[in-house]
Design brief:
Rossmann fold, 6-stranded mixed sheet, 4-stranded parallel sheet, 15 helices, elongated
Length: about 450
């Protein structure tokens, strides 16, 4: 799709100026979900259709209709059979739809043929998601990643842009017609731009690697939130860190990774990252482009898989997230690196909450992941989650520390950089602590406070 050939207008900030309404015009859309018979076990069609409607609404399209189209086998030219193509054409005319959103991946030829048949702009699932990402990206890195993905997608669709140009050979010429020449030229331009952007992304990756190396010099464990889009990751992130990341009930509200310090129980600090949400059939262009950002997940000490447990499609969404994690090379070898956070229990009926609590308890007992039912909105269950996170990241043995009454700075340092497991105040004013420090933190403590008396604690 040519960037200047979008099926919707970009939203214009502000409102009427000098008596002229500058707001983007309303674009009417019909959303169609092809229910394939050859995909085996999939999420129910109604759920997929509702998700596609949510994606379309995220682009400010006015949804006039949303239909499920049963598809026995895909047709190479149009995806749908002739009868279904005609039915959808009549439906689009009836609704006066300017855009038809097809909740599936379309080839360039299929997209072009359907636009001719329906006399409307056709947007497939990949194009829809890419356009949302293009609008929502805020950081320079996010914009780079989205641009690489969009250019890779548009490159194969240049044929649509130049159908008005001559493509036949003429006379004794040994070169192609002007249409073919223009397409090849545009492809070379796009290829050159992709190469340039990928070099810039490689620099971003190098910078991120340096930042991670710098963070490893501090005794702060890394935690990462992952999950399906709109599962409540940003709300949970704000609840745990006191942050102010944008929270909105829409798909892909968060695109740019955010890092904040998190204080685990007993004062132990950690770094928590909020990442972009996943979605079923996530375009491979986006998975490849966002690899630099999602490396935060690979480097994390603990990954928190946030699930919308109130959704009827929660299990299917969880499978989609695990599929993307595999694409990123994430391996859960120990069984402790990934835990599930069952969010939005405040939206679950009280009698069902007891059932969820039992399921969560049995999951770890039967060899599955540890599961924690929580509500990021009310805070219910968050204390138990934080306590478990503190246990997971505290792999260092406990150390007994005896501090004199004058060692106030050392005491404050331990509360800020270590996990204080136990404390006893002695009658003479000294303090006896049992703390957990990793090797680097222990070295720093001994260098700064050589007067402190340390010994291994009896566990």
């Amino acid at each position: 799709m040519n960037p200047s050939d979008k099926p919707w207008a970009e939203p214009v900030p502000g409102g009427p100026a000098d008596g002229i309404d500058q707001r983007a015009p309303i674009v009417h859309a019909l959303v169609v979900h092809p229910q394939r018979a050859d995909h085996g076990v999939r999420r129910d069609a109604a759920g997929r259709l509702a998700e596609a409607v949510g994606l379309a609404e995220a682009l400010d399209l006015e949804i006039r209709g949303a239909d499920i189209a049963n598809l026995r086998a895909p047709h190479p030219a149009t995806l749908f059979g002739k009868g279904k193509v005609e039915d959808i054409r009549l439906r689009a005319e009836e609704l006066d739809a300017e855009v038809v959103v097809v909740d599936d991946a379309l080839s360039p030829i299929q997209q072009r043929n359907l636009e001719k048949a329906w006399n409307a702009k056709v947007v497939d699932r990949t194009g829809l998601i890419l356009e949302i990402f293009a609008r929502r990206a805020r950081t320079a890195e996010g914009k780079l990643q989205v641009e690489v993905a969009r250019l890779s997608y548009e490159r194969s669709r240049l044929v649509r842009t130049w159908t008005h140009l001559e493509r036949q050979r003429g006379g004794m010429s040994k070169t192609g017609g002007p249409g073919e020449t223009q397409i090849e030229l545009d492809r070379r331009i796009i290829d050159d731009k992709i190469v340039k952007l990928k070099k810039e992304l490689e620099e971003v990756r190098r910078t991120r690697t340096l930042h991670r190396a710098q963070r490893k010099k501090t005794p702060f464990p890394m935690l990462a939130l992952v999950g399906y889009t709109n599962a409540g990751k940003s709300t949970l992130f704000n609840r745990l860190t006191g942050g102010d990341v944008l929270v909105k009930d829409m798909l892909f509200a968060t695109l740019d990774t955010t890092l904040r310090q998190l204080h685990l129980p007993d004062g132990r600090p950690a770094i928590l990252s909020d990442t972009v949400g996943f979605i079923s059939d996530l375009p491979h262009e986006l998975v490849a482009s966002f690899r630099a950002t999602l490396e935060e997940v690979q480097e994390a000490d603990v990954v928190l898989h946030v699930r919308d447990i109130a959704s009827e499609s929660s299990d299917e969404q969880a499978r989609d997230v695990k599929t993307v994690l595999k694409q990123l090379g994430f391996e859960d070898e120990t069984g402790k690196r990934l835990i599930e956070v069952w969010n939005k229990i405040d939206q679950v009926a009280p009698e069902d909450q007891a059932i969820l609590a039992t399921r969560a308890r049995r999951s770890s007992e039967t060899g599955g992941p540890e599961c924690f039912p929580v509500s990021a909105v009310t805070g219910e269950g968050c204390e138990a989650l934080l306590a478990r996170l503190a246990e997971l990241v505290d792999t260092a043995p406990a150390i007994d520390v005896l501090l004199s009454p004058s060692d106030g700075r050392a005491l404050a340092w331990l509360y800020q950089n270590a996990r204080v497991v136990d404390r006893a105040d002695v009658d003479d004013g000294s303090v006896r602590l049992s703390v957990r420090l990793d090797e680097q933190a222990m070295g720093r403590f001994e260098r700064q406070f050589p007067q402190a008396r340390l010994k291994a604690a009896a566990e």
